[in-house]
Amino acid sequence: MAKIFVEAYGCSASFADSEMISGLIVNGGHTLATNSSESDLNLIVTCSVKDTTANKMMHRIKSLKSKPLIVAGCLPKAEKSNVEKFTENASLLGPNSLGKTLEVINSTLAGTKQIALEDSDLSKVGLPKVRLNPTVGIVEIASGCMSECTFCQTKLSKGDLSSYRLGDIVRQVETEIKDGCKEVWLTSTDNGCYGLDIGTDLPTLVNSVSEIKEDFMIRVGMMNPMYMPRIKEKLIESYDNDKVFKFLHIPVQSGSDKVLNDMKRGHTSQTFREIVKKTKEKFENFTISTDIIVGFPSETEEDFQKTIALLEETKPDVVNLSKYSARPGTDAAELKQIDAAEIKRRSKVIFEQINKISLESNKKWIGWKGKVLFDENTEEGIKGRNYAYKPIAVQEDVKIGDAYMVEIIDATRKRLIGKIAS
Question: Is residue 123 included in any domain, yes or no?
Fold first, then answer.
């Protein structure tokens, strides 16, 4: 038996992987350490989506390598040689190699480095897990994606789309609810293409999960716009269920069709406009979250202004803003890069714009009263979500998993401020 410290970074799929790794560790006879100082072995589940994130990962890897170390997740698969520069003795575990978890742990504890980066045939549905949040069940519905984006390392890390069977996912959701979860996240690299390899689709999955006869909420995770035209109508219909958060994360990345083409995104800015329009027509309050990259190598000032115009027109509630950074192994890394100072300027302009839009969006909720599920423990305290997945903070003491009627009395750009109404 060994004490193993597990730490995770990145997207919800990465945190789901860490929960399953922790479950395999406990089932394998080891115990989980609460920090790295008391552990016999450290395991870090990494993310490589941005340059700044990768740098943070490398710094953390260096701080953990005083003990036997396993570097898991996307970074070792996408940048094996870079990881080994920082820690030549660490074992490596790929994002689709979880079936090798115990083998790699036991080998590393015995002093032998092991590299397990090849995809295994092990489905991530039905694996034991130790949840990071007892209220939220993170269920991976697929691995990999069908896109070929020129800026992104995810395909290098996770490969082609491999959707998990609908019935297996429904059973996993039932398990999450039975174990006390009141919110379920359906997550993957790209939910939009779920099922296209096995003859089904995302709306069918959402409808099937919604039919589970328990009291819980469903958050549908990120989906790329390129797959939306074929499922748009059915997807919006599937959201017409009280169990589904009225929330859609759909990364447009740019308002310029030329830049989108250079990125190989497979969609146009109009695709995004139509989705926003359809959801707003169908539902009175619907939260749209999107991603924007500024400073892509081929982005001109005219292209940049088109992004500003798109945001002003569509007014997404949440915008995840990134300054472009060249990622090793991607096509865009080979292009002539825009000056860093210019990228910083563009980022500042967009940042100020989205802060304004977010504040305006949140202020519209002042006076609303309704049910809020408190589902997240943050540095500022416990936060809840309403039916449109709006983050809500209250002054009163609440516990994770509690649900109350809340009245919104104020708003900031990041959250709504409420008071418990009953």
Answer: no
User: What are the Cα distances from residue 82, in Å, to 71, 77, 243, 337?
Assistant: 12, 10, 44, 21
Tell me the C-alpha to C-alpha distance, in Å, between residue 237 and each of 181, 231, 276, 278.
Answer: 25, 10, 14, 11
What range defines the domain where residue 293 resides?
281-364
Q: What is the pTM of this model?
A: 0.86
Dig out the tokens for 52 from the structure: 């700044």
pLDDT tens across 43-89, in order?
999 887 666 777 788 888 888 888 999 999 888 887 888 888 888 88
At residue 248's C-alpha, the angle toward residues 175 and 421, to 5°, is: 75
CATH number of the CATH domain containing 78 = 3.40.50.12160
Residues whose CB falls within 8 Å of the CB of residue 86, separated by 6 or more in sequence, listed in order: 58, 61, 62, 65
Determine, yes or no, domain membership for 269. Answer: no
Residues 12 and 93 in one domain: yes
174, 90: one domain: no
With respect to residue 137, please indicate whether it lies within any of the assigned structural domains: yes
> Lowest-confidence range among 2-6, 172-176, 338-342, 344-348?
338-342
Q: Position of tokens 């989108």?
A: 260
